[in-house]
């Protein structure tokens, strides 16, 4: 390896900086110069007029300071052109001109698809899972998931305290795109009574019945945790018709958000003052937990060792609590399993 490159791609996630720091430490340990590539694959397409906006030598001094910082020092961005061969050829030319013989890609499945394409073009790549969603089937954890869940747990506990004081139910929307893992883990960890996820079909009526049953039992502060993508599994419900019938028209094309859902619950559950909170970006911009940082540290070192030893086309992950690696192609084929047993347990009250 003359030089190694590292980039962060897709949505940012807590722990990305820690992983970059670990890659830098390990590269320094093995005397391999490290180049940081800015804004995902964009940096390789050399779009900026100033080379330092695309590519930057990452010395140990520079990165030691960033390990516990949220966000990503290297920046991240989508790069739709990278899906086309002609642009990937530009990337390969940049890598060759810079004498970068191996690349560490920190991101989600989209970024791994990009890495797979580069491997097919002769560039050795190693992927590190960086996404709060935890939607990669081959690994038990991805950088940022633990942090995002802990942010949600902290927020939901506070919301439940106020819900208890005022005897009011709460609807809390958390992130995760098409994956309900953040919602489920946060619901379990806070003793929330209801969770709604994209993996399990649901109806507005059944959720209203569940909430009503809690209220009837005297649990006025019941909490509904909804994953942002949960409307994908919602059985047809004519929100427009429903809200119009209740004197409040809305835009029918809008998905079921926490605010809308709380308003529908209020109307279906005898006027219960359900309050909505959307936790949003604080889940992504939080400081990484010890668990995420430790995983980042191990993964960063393993990525550099693999490249140094001539092993490429792999992604790093966690299986049975141990850091492991497997071929990108195989990893991308692994289907994500959702824990329906835990889901049933939360919703069984
Ligand atoms: P994530 O990595 O979090 O899943 P995206 O799906 O947005 O995020 O993908 C990040 C980037 O990875 C895209 O902007 C693009 O540059 C690259 N990418 C995604 N899919 C492909 C693909 N099929 N081929 C090549 N590059 C891809």
Characterise the protein shown here.
The protein is α/β, with parallel strands linked by helices and 349 residues long. The chain folds into two domains: 4-144 and 288-333, Rossmann fold (3-Layer(aba) Sandwich); 145-284, Rossmann fold (3-Layer(aba) Sandwich). Helices cover 40% and strands 16% of the residues. It has helices at residues 16-29, 60-64, 85-97, 109-120, 145-166, 181-190, 204-216, 239-245, 258-268, 290-308, 328-333, 340-346; strands at residues 3-8, 34-37, 55-57, 100-107, 125-129, 170-174, 194-196, 223-227, 275-278, 314-319, 322-327. Strand 10 (314-319) and strand 11 (322-327) form a beta hairpin. Helix 5 (145-166) packs across helix 6 and helix 7 packs across helix 9 (258-268). The N and C termini lie far apart (57 Å). Residues 9-11, 40-41, 78-80, 82-83, 107-111, 113-114, 117, 131 line the site of adenosine-5'-diphosphate. The site of adenosine-5'-diphosphate has 19 residues, from helix 4.
SSE order and pairing:
Blueprint: E1 3-8, H1 16-29, E2 34-37, E3 55-57, H2 60-64, H3 85-97, E4 100-107, H4 109-120, E5 125-129, H5 145-166, E6 170-174, H6 181-190, E7 194-196, H7 204-216, E8 223-227, H8 239-245, H9 258-268, E9 275-278, H10 290-308, E10 314-319, E11 322-327, H11 328-333, H12 340-346
Parallel strand pairs: 1-2, 1-4, 4-5, 5-10, 6-8, 6-9, 7-8
Antiparallel strand pairs: 2-3, 10-11
The chain binds adenosine-5'-diphosphate.
């Amino acid at each position: 390896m003359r030089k190694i490159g590292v980039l962060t791609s897709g949505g940012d996630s807590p722990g990305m900086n820690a992983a970059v720091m670990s890659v830098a430490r390990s590269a320094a340990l093995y005397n391999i110069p490290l180049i940081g590539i800015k804004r995902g694959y964009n940096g390789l397409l050399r779009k900026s007029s100033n080379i330092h906006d695309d590519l930057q030598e990452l010395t140990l001094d520079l990165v030691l300071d960033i390990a516990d910082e949220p966000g990503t020092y290297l920046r991240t961005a989508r790069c739709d052109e990278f899906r086309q061969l002609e642009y990937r050829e530009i990337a390969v030319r940049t890598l060759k001109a810079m004498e970068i013989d191996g690349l560490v890609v920190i991101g989600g499945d989209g970024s791994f698809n990009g890495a797979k394409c580069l491997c097919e073009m002769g560039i050795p790549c190693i992927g590190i899972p960086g996404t709060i969603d935890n939607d990669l089937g081959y690994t038990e954890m991805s950088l940022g998931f633990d942090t995002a869940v802990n942010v949600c747990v902290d927020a939901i506990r506070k919301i439940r305290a106020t819900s208890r004081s005022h005897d009011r139910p709460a609807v809390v929307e958390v992130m995760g795109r098409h994956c309900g893992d953040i919602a489920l883990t946060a619901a379990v960890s806070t003793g929330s009574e209801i969770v709604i996820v994209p993996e399990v079909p649901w109806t507005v009526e059944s959720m209203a019945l569940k909430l009503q049953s809690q209220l009837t039992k005297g649990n006025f502060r019941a909490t509904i945790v909804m994953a942002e993508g949960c409307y994908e599994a919602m059985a047809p419900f004519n929100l427009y018709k429903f809200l119009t019938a209740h004197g409040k028209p809305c835009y029918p094309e809008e998905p079921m958000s926490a605010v809308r859902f709380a308003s529908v619950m209020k109307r279906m559950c005898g006027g219960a003052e359900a309050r909505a909170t959307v936790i949003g970006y604080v889940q992504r911009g939080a400081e990484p937990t010890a668990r995420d940082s430790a995983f980042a540290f191990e993964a960063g070192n393993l990525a550099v060792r693999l490249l140094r030893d001539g092993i490429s086309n792999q992604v790093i992950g966690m299986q049975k609590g141990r850091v492991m690696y497997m071929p990108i192609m195989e990893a991308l084929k692994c289907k994500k399993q959702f824990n329906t047993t835990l889901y049933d347990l939360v919703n069984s009250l």
